[in-house]
Specification:
single chain, mainly alpha, 78% helix
Length: 222
Amino acid sequence: MFAVWSLTYLFANICGSVVISVLGYESADLVPTWVLGLSALTLWGPYIGVLLWVSKRKGSGSFVQDFALGFRAQDLWGIPLGIASQLLLVVLVTLPFRWMFPTLFNEEAVEKRANDLFDAAQGGWIVLLFFIVVICAPLVEEIVYRGFIQHNLSLAYGARISLLLASFWFAAVHLQIAELPGLFAFALVLGWCFSRTKRLGLPIVAHVSFNATALTLMALTR
């Protein structure tokens, strides 16, 4: 599992970096939203492709079944869960780190990535940003980190250890130290939802709501 993820992660990031470079940007640049969308496609496409292969070679052949892509009406509870996680959980978890390490975890550092994404979106490109951040990112990330990684870790180490490992994995891979505590706490919520329901419906809805709340806050404070 780790080898599959690592190789895919390396390949996907190389592809994303090549796309940004070919278009004349640096990885640290504030790229336009259409470039972000194109690089996201090169990042997420390999993951979905590899998991489709895993499903056919190692699973039942049904992507939906193998990665627990089930939805029920009660999964709509993920909407208030995601909102509460964004407005309360992340703030409360980050607060002690802000007191202890004010330079690393100040408000500007925690919100920098979200602000950069929003600032790069102009006019109608906000619709594309919404699609990438609110729809695509939660769907792909939940399939990878809960449906694939947490599920496989639970087979080897049990529910509690897999929840902790997959949550830290999810938070760390975002490569933003200022966001790490909040993302880890939120990932624990998502992982608990998956562990309890054995489906991705609830964590996907909660993740969508979490990201949508962040974008809405960005829009309202501009």
